[in-house]
């Protein structure tokens, strides 16, 4: 078994042509560029002897005719808008070349990991937790097109949705760029992922009193905007006392109503999230968040209401798979690897619900991702491919 890294790199660059945008790609889910990339990928799978096709949600499954036990490997092909050429695509091409090297690997390409139409609809469909009624209600978050219309325009309407054969697979593997600076900053080439963080998303709604900005005295005001600012400052002061080393939190959206310069805001809405791989840390921060909201309501004239939007579960990588990838990394890049959590969500977190799963990272130059300047050196890409192949060989041994 030998992986051809030159062909691996050539396929990565060939895939880059579909939806090329500056040095990156613009390949939104089910766009013509995305569907062209999927058709090209199916043809490459067939060239390598796999049985491949696109199902009714846009997933690609390439079945390897080699006798088992089999591994499943893959990622996603679509991109964020005007984004990078490696996010997702790297894991798909790596899976293709695991199979091309002679290993009994099936290749999976999951639709819409980037969430143009919904949350991980491809991997959730494949693992059996996406219902038809949810598909009926989904639409594109940028331009509003219903998912059903997009599937019809892409020629996928009426096709069955393929679901995982659990007994066929020993494990799932996904290779990805780090999307951060930990590896590059330490001069490392490989990250063995210990787990994928959960994202706990909250909505905080604050009720004030809309009024004239010039004639309402400061003593009379019920300013929802200032209450929101003070509440967020309190949260940012308290969280560092209770978080873990890699916990992050973000107020990604703050909307004031009516949002005019000469009107005191009568309402504020905050979308707030925090991420960690440890469920106990997540629960601890929930308690802190609730205490902050309660304290704000004690101090302020504008009441705040906290509502949970989504509370996902961390996905811990299988220890035996981690060890196999770590041993492969030490064999091929001694001293140039580390174990690390993933701060972003990935399809692997849903595959981990139905089979052992693990991920491996390669460095991102300057830590950039979800932008067209996203890049990784060819040396690091080739090393990652070799380590992934060696890790897969050890898992199957």
Automatic annotation (TrEMBL):
> Is ATP-binding set as a keyword in this record?
no
The GO terms this record gives for MF are: hydrolase activity
Please give the InterPro entries that the UniProt record associates with this protein.
Amidase_Cbmase (IPR010158), Bact_exopeptidase_dim_dom (IPR036264), Peptidase_M20 (IPR002933), Peptidase_M20_dimer (IPR011650)
Instruction: Give the UniProt keywords, A-Z.
Output: Hydrolase, Manganese, Metal-binding
Family membership, please give it. Belongs to the peptidase M20 family.
Q: How does it assemble?
A: Homodimer.
Protein name per UniProt = Zn-dependent hydrolase
- Organism equals Muricoccus vinaceus
**Lineage of the organism:** Bacteria, Pseudomonadati, Pseudomonadota, Alphaproteobacteria, Acetobacterales
């Amino acid at each position: 078994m030998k992986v051809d890294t030159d062909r691996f790199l050539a396929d990565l660059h060939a895939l880059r042509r579909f939806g090329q945008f500056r040095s990156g790609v613009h390949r939104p889910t089910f766009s013509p560029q995305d569907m062209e990339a999927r058709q090209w990928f199916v043809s490459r799978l067939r060239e390598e002897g796999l049985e491949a096709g696109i199902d009714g949600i846009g997933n690609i499954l390439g079945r390897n005719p080699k006798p088992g036990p089999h591994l499943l490997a893959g990622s996603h092909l679509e991109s964020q808008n005007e984004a990078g050429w490696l996010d997702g695509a790297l894991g798909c091409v790596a899976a293709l070349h695991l199979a091309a090297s002679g290993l009994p690997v099936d290749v999976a390409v999951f639709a819409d990991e980037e969430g143009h139409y919904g949350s991980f609809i491809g991997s959730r469909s494949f693992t059996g937790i996406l219902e038809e009624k949810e598909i009926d209600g989904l639409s594109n978050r940028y331009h509003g097109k219903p998912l059903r219309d997009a599937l019809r325009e892409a020629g996928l309407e009426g096709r069955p949705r393929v679901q995982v054969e659990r007994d066929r697979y020993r494990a799932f593997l996904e290779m990805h760029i780090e999307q951060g600076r930990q590896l590059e900053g330490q001069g490392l080439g490989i990250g063995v992922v210990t787990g994928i963080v959960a994202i706990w998303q909250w909505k905080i709604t604050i009720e004030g009193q809309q009024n004239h900005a010039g004639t309402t005295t400061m003593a009379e005001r019920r300013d929802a905007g200032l209450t929101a600012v003070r509440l967020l400052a309190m949260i940012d002061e308290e969280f560092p006392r209770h978080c873990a080393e890699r916990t992050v939190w973000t107020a990604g959206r703050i909307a004031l109503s009516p949002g005019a310069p000469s009107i005191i805001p009568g309402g504020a809405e905050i979308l707030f999230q925090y991420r960690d791989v440890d469920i106990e840390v997540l629960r601890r921060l929930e308690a802190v968040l609730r205490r902050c909201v309660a304290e704000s309501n004690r101090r302020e004239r504008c009441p705040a209401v906290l509502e949970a939007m989504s509370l996902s579960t961390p996905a811990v990588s299988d220890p035996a798979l981690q060890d196999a990838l770590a041993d492969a990394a030490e064999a091929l890049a001694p001293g140039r690897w580390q174990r690390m959590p993933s701060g972003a969500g990935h399809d692997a977190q849903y595959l981990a619900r139905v089979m052992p799963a693990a991920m491996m990272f390669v460095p991102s130059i300057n830590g950039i991702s979800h932008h067209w300047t996203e890049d990784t050196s060819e040396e690091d890409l080739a090393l990652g491919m070799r380590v992934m192949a060696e890790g897969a060989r050890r898992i199957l041994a």
